[in-house]
């Protein structure tokens, strides 16, 4: 059976020259608005010939470097700076972004596990479906900004995936290098089911992503990395005029599952190493204190391998099953 | 009328020699426990003659450096290290700490605005009353750990108040200096009504406090500052044996209300300066993007005075009325 | 695979002569009732030969004219007034009706977008499935009462759809005319997927619906329209004895998508025209004031076409994406 | 003991000439903003000599005619139109207005039962205290807009109270007459404890109020009554230049407690009379259907006295104890 | 200052002969009913000369034996059976009873800790005030039914307090004996502040109470004890005609605080003794399993004294601070 | 399409000799833990040759006899007592167990209606899928403990199903007999869709279940039945060394749908018979009092057949559609 058309309608013209601001309007009948809609802001810029870049933030709603760089770009871009087309969606999972939560407050959907989506599914699935069937097919280059959100913190990095198609892979890593984050990562996705990344890559798009900090905040430093990297990437991709402002970067690999350490106990977490610190295999990276009594010894959490601490649990309280730390391995590019 | 006795009963003996672990038990009849209680962990250490130090964390429930230092101290302290008495309450507003929220989930009480409390009031007022009438009178020295919590971030500092009694003030600043945080602050409290600080100081106690980070997390670095500062302060106060491990510190003043900048608009906040950065009066410290549309210019938030950014709003989204930044002035000690 | 039988069991006998009151019992295991059920009231009246009319209200749970007319009919109807069969379900989405919400509090299901339903799906899908496979097949004529609910307000009208089968369409409009609401509407449904209307019409049933007011209330006037119209329709359909009490009506068309105006901004809404007012294309029908500051100019919302304002947003606050107004075109019958 | 000063600070200058827009900033420390504030928009207009009018809406947060008229006035008023001073607070209980609820979402406070308030009380009490001790003393004339909110509907009227001081009373009724609502009411408040009305009148202010509709909406008609009446009243009070645009009005009395009819049963309510209809004593004004079964007779609700239905319950479902209707008596002025 | 009159109005006449059913109407303005009320059902029976008995259930809203006995009495009592006056309020904290919770869903008030109440306080305080100032003064004998509620379970007993006035005490124990529950208890209240018991006894009333089971249910057996005991007590008190149906009872004392055992640990609770079992001092009465891991030994909870287990924690999960068991001592009467 | 592998990973080795404690780790990305997991405790015991018994509790999260027996077994079992393999999962629906609710707080899933589950479905479906595809295939014998939970109460019984395969059926009833609960039941499941029972039986496993009490509690007596029965069953199944401690049991049948009585009315329920009481067909087993007024007669609920009351509604308040009582028929074994 032919899938139904997407219920989402754009109020911008994807083909019109110049800068257009508008919405992706998704009808959403609910108790507080029988004939309500979800209005996701979008900017489209067309100028001359050139590739199309699809730029997104807030795939998870509590990650802020991407939205800052993209709301800023949308507010300042001039058509004459562009050579091709920009499609800017600063807050991809808009209901989650508006609620400042990772997942959608409407259906608790994790947008980055909802692809390819469904036109007749939940709100999050409808958004995924629109990207899958309408926006991704228009794009040549896709940049999806992530950060750690409220519960994780990362060394700021730009990344792409190891892919079967080595030309596609090389094109992506060229853009990672141009982005110029302090760190760059080669990712081998273990469980790629339902990801936006996978959806884009399976269509042959050049896909680049980031993790630029976390904790549900953005600093001047991390926002600066996002803005500078965005402009560099667009220039390198041939969609914006200008020069790439080269930045030094260090490369990290995440070779296997030993990179990830999980807590088996809940409690108050004291880290013994910070982001960027080198650790040995088995070295304690954190201790977890039980909090219902005083006088009890904490449980120690050892590193699963030697390397650099590249991500960590953020909240002061940890729950059984939470990822405590990720240890990466620094490599030559 | 004579006030009623506190409903809180301690299961530890404040006079017994050695290390005792127990609870402050506060009966709390509620829907899910008709004869339930709130059990706040407490450790008391008595050894020989000497002053009494009352040590508290989680006055606000989402601040973690203090609880880490105090759960650690309670689990490792040996009676023979003490010369006098330690009263350790790692999580002063225990219901808030258990819920990982600033205020109590039971009555939304802000413990640090609830003094002197009431024995027949809300749960938070009953806790305040117990400190006011039972624990503070036992103490000579009081150390109350704070951090920024989930919504603020601070340069790590130890602080005391400008007081009418200059001997009391000097004793407090001696301990601030011994604590040895990277920053030390002289505070002139504008609105001190209901604070634990004020309750302690009005009884003539030597009162020291901290702000050691924020965002609802603790790093290895900030937890280390708390643990080292705690031990230094106890040694300097004559309650623990050992040597003060001297640390360099820089001093800040908060001269007047111009230090505080408030947002009049809500939206996505992009900081233009980070903690510790020097700013000029009127220099933009942040920009706030409206998020319901793309293409709109952000509102700029200027510094109210020249100085160093010593605290900032943490979440990526700001609401009208939120404090955006605090600018302090570095001074000689 | 053969679909499972419906889990719903009726406690009334659809074939028994006379007036029977009972329930549609739907087992619903939940935290507050391991072996609980949803009990939807139903009345069945059988007398002699004649068609079967299936009469429903509260398809959306916050619409009241239909339930008033149907609870009243069920309480007063005498078997001897009937010639055929009445199946009366005054509150079709009973959980929503009991909660006074548009959608089901159990699964947030919008019953009128849940057809054909599933016997093993959500509660709302199980209700849809029972109507789809049990009740609709019994019916010749279907009347489904709607009103605007808490968030919309309508000129009171009775309506039927433009259909491919012109005989079926004519039969429906005969009943619309007999109903005799102040307004009558010819509807061309754009997105009919999942609707009860579509389910009935695809089975060849004569289907009539209404919009009789809104705001989550019913006035004496609109309840009177529902009660009088119900009786007229049943007489005209040959299911009740009596005479049609002819009422004048005016006809409206909704020719295209320009009838619908959506808000792009949220705020305090001031209407500049009321239900029934004539407006010109482009004429402002409402203004939206931002509410976070005073002194700002409101945004104007223009009519998308000339015509009569036949529906409007109801709450005093409007959100981006809400339908502000519907403009219909008065036509000769 | 001297009461503490109000924690609220105004960002507008009440004495500055011209039109000033700003906020009443009330610090409000909470889980999602440790140093947050409630920002209530305010406009002050000063021009030459003349009385001060204090104008308020959204004393209850779900009443909209007042906010529409006052946001509109604040956005359009020119200093040269004023002779004296206007203090405009379109949303007096701003947290309730922002939540679209009658009472405050923070403390469930009903602002109009919270006077004289407390500077150290709940948020709602702090707002009341600021009006009591800061704003009311500045005023000569006070206009407080009300409507029925989401759960009541009223014939649109302007009103003042029967007062012991007949000069004060006459001044108020002069303004009621000038306002020119379709209906005007002489109110004898039975339980005036905690009301803003009482606070103003006890200070000798000329106090006028309204009920201009209800249901949690505003129509073009009722918003027009508010805007026209506001301008008329300000002209009549000598605070604005211009002419009173005279409007006919009819007068109602509410002589005693028999005016109010309460439901003893819950269920689906069918009104038998609408606003403005004349009823006899004992005449049924509504019927209440039980909704857990079909086939049961409704309970009848009789009028407690003869007169005009001037207010009614709004939602389609009524609960035991709800006021069903208010019957007023039309009188000569 | 003279306290304000109670806002509660009774719709029954306390002096009228015969059986009267009605309500205590407490106005309660709230978001879902601007002019709503709380309607507490009440029955008054007057016949001839004799004492007044005030009979109450659901002082805590999740206790059912009392409401069963009192709704039953109100529905079946004939005036001619009475010699004096009965005032029957089957659900004293009606909002809590309607929500099936111990405390009020409106203000979380524990009615039995809210005396003497306030006419201008919370809803629960207003109810307490009405009993304090209106109903208790009318009464000679007061019977207040309790059970364990959802979180406790009790051996079924009737009880009165050890009082300074030995005549008052004796009169109460005469009624306890007449009630004839399987167990009878002499209570020495340790913390009587705010209790209804204390309010009644301080006015010199003869006050009797019960604990008749628990778990938030009532069995045929415990409901039978309540109904039989109620009738016996009323006959013994001279308010109803008839004979006391004598029942055997056993007497328990609760000599001191060692009767109560509290949990210091949370987890899955396994009882090792049941209600009515004899235990020795130090004998384990329960074990608490941690539930986050398998393989850990449970914590043992010892009896604080020798005696009979007369009450226990009910839910399968226990929290730190919950009362696990109460051990009473059987005594001769 | 090949189904995806389960996302659940076990941290125990199912083949390792001896006693192993660990977790089933199910990744669960959510707002409070971006990289969080659900950690279900599990114990595996391997020793020598013999069958595998899969032992589960808390299939519904508010049933406690099973978890007590299984946490106890996991904490005390020695490898040398086992002849074969034990797989012990004391809390099968761990999120529900942790929340003390029947269904999962994450997705409201009823685990016992979620089989065969889905690896890419809801959390509850993922758990079902893991049992379906990983654990059940390893097992020879399956014991799934149930009790009534918070809303039902049962005579304590062990049970198995009437099955088409009479050898499989006989093996199950042998274990029921060995279990030795006070009651034993032969169940003919009417609606077996989605049940764990069905999943196990369709794979040819020997499946035994229980209902051992209810009300959301466990008594010493019912916990003792569970522990003794568990050991007996494991011995009889040849998985543990030892002797079956024979217990007398009485047998019940549930012949048809007349065993189940449902309420059509809500209110306060008074039972007229208790668990274990014999009733005649049509005999009132309960009465339901309306609670909005006093003075109304209760509705009577008759037994649908003669027999023994073997289960009943537990809470003091009943809702329309709740099962009030189950009447079983005692039979010879």
From TrEMBL, chains A, B, C, D, E, F:
- Pfam families linked to this entry: AstE_AspA_cat (PF24827)
- What cofactors does the UniProt entry give for this protein? Zn(2+)
Sorted keywords for this record are:
Hydrolase, Metal-binding, Zinc
Protein name according to UniProt: Succinylglutamate desuccinylase/aspartoacylase
UniProt-listed CDD domains: M14_ASTE_ASPA-like (cd06252)
Q: Which GO terms describe its molecular function?
A: hydrolase activity, acting on carbon-nitrogen (but not peptide) bonds, in linear amides; hydrolase activity, acting on ester bonds; metal ion binding
Does the keyword Metal-binding feature in the UniProt annotation? yes
Q: Does the keyword Membrane apply?
A: no
Q: Which residues form the Succinylglutamate desuccinylase/Aspartoacylase catalytic domain?
A: 50-235
Which species?
Answer: Paracoccus denitrificans (strain Pd 1222)
